Amino acid sequence: MERYLVMKEVGCGTFGTVWRAVHKETGEIVAIKKMKKNYYCWEECMNLREVKSLRKMNHPNIVKLKEVIREHNVLYFIFEYMECNLYQFMKDKDKSFSESEIRDRCFQVFQALAYMHQQGYFHRDLKPENLLISKDVIKVADFGLAREISSEPPFTEYVSTRWYRAPEVLLQASVYGPAVDMWAMGAIMAELFNLHPLFPGTNEADEIHKICNVIGSPSQNSWADGLRLADSIKYQFPQYPGIHLSRLIPSASEFAISLISALCSWDPLKRPTAAKALQHPFFKPCYYIPPSLRPRDTGISKTPPTVGMRGAPEHWSARRCSVGALPNNKHASNVSSSAARTSFKTGGTQTRLDTQQYQNYVPSERFEQTDLFAQPLYRPAERNYPVPAHLGRVVPRGSWDINEKPMIPMVSPHLVVADMAEKLANLTVNSGSQTVRKPPPPALKAGSWNFHAPYLNRACEIPPARGYQRKAVG
Ligand SMILES: Nc1ncnc2c1ncn2[C@@H]1O[C@H](COP(=O)(O)OP(=O)(O)OP(=O)(O)O)[C@@H](O)[C@H]1O
């Protein structure tokens, strides 16, 4: 770790604290995540979800894990550095994002998700804090809860931040899949339009109430399995007719509303896959048509292709973020005089793993597309959500029709349920509060610091409560 010079803390999560640092020799700016828990052998480290999943990911919209270092039983992840997270970015915004800004960012995230799901993983904790931004690029980060699609149920442990948690997870289904990421994306998309969360539940019961309030209580038609699931734990959904999303998100176009509605479907099987979402008409402007193939007077922009927005007139503002605007990364000496930095000096043996060897993604033929919807820029093979073998799940494909539900399940998942009735019944529904706190993290044993940097020793705090001004959702 002595190769890195630590500059400042940029984040603190459930599992670790993240620092901006600079590689002393190359001057490269990196993010170092120091895990709270101690790790006593490599095997344990290599079995971590974050390591196992990220080692396999190589995509322009997934944050790169550059190195894993274990030193004195402390585990460090070295990531590429990103300027800020999406939550910070939204918080600093004084006016709404334009639809094209939202489209561009979501398009990138859906590409990452399509890739990740195709690689056999789903994230399970998508939220604005885990989407990192640098200039026009957005990347998915924090694979601490990522799960292999093929892994054996039941999935019982803590999953995802409440506001973005899918209904099947709230109802403690023991089998679920990548559709939970799609639910979270629906909630995040809506939040990008409104700059406040769509379902800001104060506890799990309130979360379900808020969802019912917005999308209407589930019916036999919309989520028969969910009703069975609720029945089996003796939970009764509150009865709400729902509100048309266009009333709650007045600035969103019909296409945007159509996509958000599809993503926020009660039934996981009715949510589009990420690959399917990329083909939604909402993303039509993201597809580049070579000039030679354009009809003469379409008026389509001649903006050259870049990663991200293609042909869109607006750009995300290059705002400085409260956390760590990118410093001059020419050389470490540029940052060497600050008192608030330290070197990870240790006398111990350093063990490290270079993860580059696992990264095999090669972007290819990204802009040579001719068919707007049949051929996304990055087109992973469409992959169905997992289902226990005995159910033989089928995910239908087809074109989008915004007047219809986009996907019609042919086989419903069998949801095995833990006993949640009491838990849900005992929870208070509190919708009056204006400030919503981050749900408490699961208890973890903190690791110890092994290097000489007194200011690093302070207890890791839970990030400040989110102070969104909430609009009434009902
Ligand atoms: N590569 C990076 N570049 C810049 N900042 C980062 C990077 N990775 C993480 N961060 C910052 O640190 C915060 C916490 O990181 P991360 O989500 O990985 O930690 P965690 O302990 O797994 O959190 P969680 O409680 O969400 O599980 C992020 O929200 C982000 O603001």
TrEMBL record:
Pfam families associated with the record: Pkinase (PF00069)
GO molecular function: ATP binding; cyclin-dependent protein serine/threonine kinase activity
Top-rank taxon: Eukaryota
PROSITE patterns the UniProt entry points to: PROTEIN_KINASE_ATP (PS00107), PROTEIN_KINASE_DOM (PS50011), PROTEIN_KINASE_ST (PS00108)
Polar residues: compositionally biased ranges: 330-349
Signal peptide location: none
Stretches for region Disordered: 327-349
Domain Protein kinase: 4-283
This protein's record includes keyword Lipoprotein: no
Reactions the enzyme catalyzes: L-seryl-[protein] + ATP = O-phospho-L-seryl-[protein] + ADP + H(+); L-threonyl-[protein] + ATP = O-phospho-L-threonyl-[protein] + ADP + H(+)
Alphabetical UniProt keywords: ATP-binding, Kinase, Nucleotide-binding, Phosphoprotein, Serine/threonine-protein kinase, Transferase
EC number: 2.7.11.22
Top enzyme category: transferase
Residues that, per the record, bind ATP: 34
Family: Belongs to the protein kinase superfamily. CMGC Ser/Thr protein kinase family. CDC2/CDKX subfamily.
Protein name from the UniProt record: cyclin-dependent kinase
